[in-house]
Hints:
The chain is an alpha+beta fold. It has helices at 53-57, 62-101; strands at 107-111, 120-124, 131-136, 142-146, 157-159, 164-167, 172-175, 181-183, 192-198, 201-208.
Amino acid sequence: MEGDPEKPLDVLVNSPGREGLTGTTPVDMYAPVRDPEQITIAPDGRPMTQQPTWRQDFPIDWPQDHYVARRDFAKFLVLTSAAFVIGQLWIGLQNAWRKRRGEFPLRKIASFSAIPVGGSVVFHYPDAHADCILVRTSERELVAFSQKCTHLSCAVVPDVEKGIFRCPCHEGFFDLKTGRNIAGPPPRPLPRVILSVRGDDIFATGIEWRTI
């Protein structure tokens, strides 16, 4: 095939003007496609490493702005999750350490002789926000439990004759001697207060939490 000797032969199939030929490809078919995450070039043409700080802090294009937002959001999620995990571990370690050392306070509740059979005393243990109740069930027997119902924390009321604690809010019932949930919506027993009688004085020495 002979051509114009004064015009060089075009040997490339992607040259402008030849796209219509059979078997050729448009010149922009393989043009680079910009990644949405890619930072675009600043107006002065310099790379971002040479741009002033204010330009890096305040992106001028949507791709960079969105990238920064997603990156910061991911950092926030990671930090929040880490803080939650650390907090739970800290609470667990504190509870295990206190249980191991037996750090419940020793606190006097009442005098044995001051409580008649069938009588009760409301007290706070192990702190001022924990309502508990002590009941003298017989001449020589005492029981003490958290007064907060394990359903919605209403105050339970003892009925010594029937041998129960009754929650008046939603008709929940607990066994008077064991604190076990026996009827109604309460899902678990009342936490039991561990007692110690020394002479005529009644002391609280700990809390026993149970699930069954």
